[in-house]
Every structure is written in structure tokens, then in C-alpha cells.
Amino acid sequence: MKFSASAILFDNDGVLVDSHAAAKKAWDIWATEFSPGYDLDKANNAGRRAEDMVRELVSPELFTVANDRINALEQDTAHLTIPLAGAKELLLSLKPGIWTICTSANPNLGRARLEAAGLPIPKELVTGNDVKRGKPHPDPYLLGAKNLGFDPQDCIVFEDAEAGVISAIEAEIGLVVGVGERAVKSQADIVVRNLTGISFDGEEIVIPDSIRIR
Predict the structure, then answer these.
(1) Which residues on adjacent β-strands are paired with residue 80?
(2) List 11, 18, 139, 189, catalytic entry
(3) Structure pTM?
């Protein structure tokens, strides 16, 4: 499969890196302190900012302390993050200025997870702190395209979570590629298993048919 595009916008967790074990460990500890019974695996919160999740789980007067706590816990477990298949090879092959990452994590956590996975960090990185509204709102991907200097319709987004797919669609991204089994039921235009074998030269992206699952 070949598609014309000017830039790529990547989600991080679930697309470039596997941070599930790290996040699960942090949120399990947090839940015992602030929201007994909360299970990250059962909640439909993939792709959302931690602060938005916390705001829904605790009373307003507890928000600041609860939010600070999950930020600290996730920072402490960030070292458990590992790269996903094809991510390192693809990112290292891309020229600066034609790609960036739009993560819902805060700046410290986003960078820590990328560093733990051994992945490059683009100067145009968008984090949860850079936007007023996080995913599923379009703000992260609109800012990502703006940072690179491209129209959203000329960009491709890689996303694993429904919230992120909706964010990309709302931003009127030209092509939304879902990543992993979780994305199969999303509104992504196509879905791939991982990023293995994908290439991009700034004008055309090539996605091997062998990794497509929808």
C-alpha cells in the first residue's frame, strides 16, 4: 500500500512503545490510595491524559494531590517501557521536520518513556501539557501538524486507541492508521499489526500488505 503525505504524527504509547506494564503498576498503586476498585485494564481510558482520568475519579478537592501522585508513580515506572516492533527502525529512518509524536503523557513522562525505549525525541514533540483539551479532542494533532508546518489533511496519524483515532478524525487528518488489535473496531481508515517495514520519504509512505489486519 502506498499513500501520498507530507508528514507523520505518531501516538506514543501502544504505537511506538509498550508502556502497559509501567502504567498498570502505577495505576494499581494509585487506585489503592484514591479510587479502590479502579482497574486500568477494565476502564475505557486508553489514549487519554492522566489528569482527565483523575478528574473523573476523585472529588475536586483531592484532584491536585491525586494528580501529582499518579504523575510521580508513572514517572517511577517509566523505565519498564520497551519499544514496539518496527518503531525504532522507522523513526531512525525519518528525516527531521517530517514527523513528530503527539502523546497524552506529560512532558517528563513522555520523554522518559521514549528514552527508556531507546527512541529519538523530536523537537516538535506534543505532550498533554501543550494543549488545553486532550484526546479525543482534535487539539493534539492540530498542534502536531502546526508544529511541523503542514496542513492536517497532508498528514498521516498512527494511533492505537479509540480516543486518539477520534482526535485525528476531528483534526481532519488525511489518513488515520490504526495500530494493533485494539484499533480494529475503531474508525481508523486502515489497521496494521505494527510498524514493521514501513517507509516514508516525505512524499510517499509505503505500508507492507503483510502487516495490514484491516
Answers:
(1) none
(2) 11
(3) 0.95
**Residue located via cell numbers 489518513:** 175
Q: Is 68 a catalytic residue?
A: no
Which residue blocks in the chain are alpha helix, DSSP H? Answer: 20-34, 50-57, 63-77, 87-93, 107-116, 139-148, 162-170
- 139 as an active site residue: the answer is no
CATH 1.10.760.10 matches 2-18+81-211: no
**pLDDT tens for the 214 residues of the chain, in order:** 999 999 999 999 999 999 999 999 999 999 999 999 999 998 888 899 999 999 999 999 999 999 999 999 999 999 999 999 999 999 999 999 999 999 999 999 999 999 999 999 999 999 999 999 999 999 999 999 999 999 999 999 999 999 999 999 999 999 999 999 999 999 999 999 999 999 999 999 999 999 999 9
The residue length of the chain stands at 214
Closest by Cα among 38, 20, 41 to 29: 38
Q: Where are the domains of the chain?
A: 2-18+81-211, 20-79
